[in-house]
Amino acid sequence: MEPKAVFLQALEMLKQQKIECPSYHRLAELITQVYAQSEGDLLLKVEKQLTSDNKTLLENLILENNSTILNQFKLLSQSTKPKAIQASLEVFNQIKNYFLSMHPIIEALNLSTISSTYYAKWVNKAQCSQLKQFPTRSKLYLHLLAFIQYQFYSRQDYYVDILLKSVQAAKNMANKKLIETDKVTRHQR
Question: What single-letter DSSP state applies at residue 124?
Answer without folding.
Answer: H
